[in-house]
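Chapter review: from sequence to fold.
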Amino acid sequence: MTIRAVDVARVDDRPLWLEISGDEVWWDEPRPREGGRRCVVRRRADGVIEDVLPQGWNARNRVMEYGGRSWRAHEGRLVFTNWADGRIYLCSPGEEPVPLTPEGPARYADLVVHGGEVWCVRERGDARSGERDIVAVPLDGSPLRSVARTHHFLMNPRVSPDGRSLAWIGWNHPDMPWDATELCVGSVDGGPHRVLLSGASTCQAEWRDDQSLYAVSDPTGWWNIHLVGLDGTTRDLTPVPLEFGDATWKIGGTFFAVADGRIATVYGTADERRLGIVDTPVPAGAAAGSIRDAGGGYTYWAPALSARGSHVVGVAASPHRPYEVVRVDLDTGAHEVLSPGKPVPEDAELPTPEAVTVEGVHAHLYTPAGDGPAPYVVFVHGGPTSSAPPVLDLEIAYFTSRGIGVAEVNYGGSTGYGRAYRERLRHSWGVVDVRDCETVARWLLDSGRARKVAIRGGSAGGWTSMAALVHSDVFCGAVSHYGISDPEHWAAETHDFESRYLDGLIGPLPETRQRYADRSPELHAERASGPALLLHGLEDKVVDPAQSERFAAALARHGHRWAYLTFEGEQHGWRREETIVRALEAELAFYGIVFGFPTPEVPPLTLRQGEEVA
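The token string follows.
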């Protein structure tokens, strides 16, 4: 069976946030057929699932451009941020939303409700020079108040159980949140604050009681769960070389939740991220780090946990099961799938990932249908401080069902293997990532698995794909989804959150400008080892479409083949069904050209050569 592009569009996504609310479970889900909006739904106690967010509303925001926690359930009502205007709204099921924040350019994210107020991060200013503070927004419509403005970037506002103290996490340029942050505590009325943790990366903190918090931080080089006292004491509760956190791209992730005094947590590596239980309190002098597995047959749990009593709800997947909302009874270990089933192929029709390590490089191989050496595509994840989990991905299956193998490479710099592995990319972006992808590609060829290898990726993965095309001779073609082609231009064009990211990935400007020039795919397009397919959303504020346009023009000047497709109404990533279908079919047609096989089931793709971009 071959998988259609429309099947990928309707299955390949997942809830970002969820919450137990009384005897109901709420979550958000993508709606590619409704213009790509995210709709909040609830599963009632009787098992009926219904939309909470009315048609025409979209529970998203663009704080720090990637967005953050966009909604909360509160006493049967929904508090959410609306994509169109950035405001916070309150609505009851079946009713029209009512605004809680004033009109204006402000945006809000990382919502949490406490004491009749929504506590969240407010962002003002343009994409290049925003400022942020933590505000309290009354649910009764009274004016909001600003409580903390301590860092250029803020997240994780949490009010203590007694309602007197506020905890939050902040960081400043040039650090990214996976480099170094500060865990702060102050009064809910504002004023002075104290720093409890600094120098490491803290990605989540929750109050244990009025005098201490649980926090995921990595002073040991691994994101572990710590008990942090207001008196300055800290204790690592999970002192093992495993990750209990990850890079913060969207603020508001929940890597752990407290259930009946126990900590339910996602943990592991990029090869497998399980659901575990840590019993608390750990007696003084006792060995910490004892983790009981509660993940069942799922091999990946997303940072979206909610707990109540003896139950925890999360979003989980495995190589043959799509992302599902799953409720776990921590007393019995029973699992219950709460979300509706998805139309996925039979197990025999899906590839099973094989984890391999090639010369120290981590990768997941998806063997295609058919026998003998096959064409392969190296998939490069974005970030680059991120990783690719080995879960059901119909985008991959779309290609393997047609005889094209896939190798997902978690190159040096990826998360999920400790700080030392992700810092292999420090000042080496465009070198280590390219070399690691090339290492896996050459291994595929030398081992007889592959007869030809192409490379593809999105965003930072698009950068690596274009860089590999011009700085290596092993790839017969490259596909870039909304990728970066010239780092110096990108540093000047991109949004505030990532505007100093390249300080750590390549080096500070202007001191290391030559590195930028040496690694730029655009400036070395004459070396391209094959053609390129470039795809970009015209509303992208993270990577300007000019990045793709300039690379296409550079290829054209040097007589190389290329195609450039644009998509109206799309930002950084594909959300609309028609976009996903068109982009995937164009990619298949491109592989038909570079690998040399017919693709009659998709519209033809024309590669231009020696022409300037219009």
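Two observations follow directly from the output. The longest strand covers residues 321-329. The chain is about 15% helix and 35% strand.
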